[in-house]
Design brief:
Radius of gyration: 14 Å
Order of helices and strands: HHHHEEEEHH
Largest sheet: 4 strands, mixed
Number of strands: 4
Number of helices: 6
Length: 132
């Protein structure tokens, strides 16, 4: 919630619709153990938020849409990290451990348009591992 709340204008562009910012904020505003469907983790919107909030390359794998999300505004750290999640049974995610230097899904296209110049290093670090 913090990442989206601090950068609503950036994410209005990334999400391609200003209304999506308030919808995603509302869906994240859930602090109960068993969340209703409207509060579930949704991609691609939340993928951008995870990458930026945790300063990681966030890789998602599924039959329908596999993407890599990179931080939108932070520089590449000395020891960059990645987190990979795979969709299982179309209703939940599990952590997936990728071997070093394995191919990755393409970077989400909105990143190319909306990332800040300081974040360019992420593409240099991960761009050569993309598969189409």
């Amino acid at each position: 919630m913090n990442e989206l709340g601090k950068n609503p204008t950036l994410y209005a562009g990334v999400f391609l619709q200003e209304e999506c910012v308030s919808e995603v904020l509302e869906s994240l505003n859930c602090f109960i153990e068993s969340a209703r469907y409207k509060h579930w983790f949704t991609l691609p919107y939340m993928g951008f938020l995870v990458a930026s909030a945790y300063n990681v390359a966030f890789i998602t794998l599924s039959r329908d849409m596999s993407l890599t999300f990179l931080p939108m505004h932070s520089a590449l750290p000395a020891n960059p990290r990645s987190i990979c999640m795979g969709m299982v049974n179309n209703n939940h995610f599990v952590q997936v451990y990728l071997a070093a230097d394995r191919p990755m899904p393409p970077v989400a296209s909105s990143w190319m348009t909306y990332h800040k110049r300081a974040a360019n290093g992420w593409m240099f670090a991960y761009g050569n591992r993309q598969i189409s």
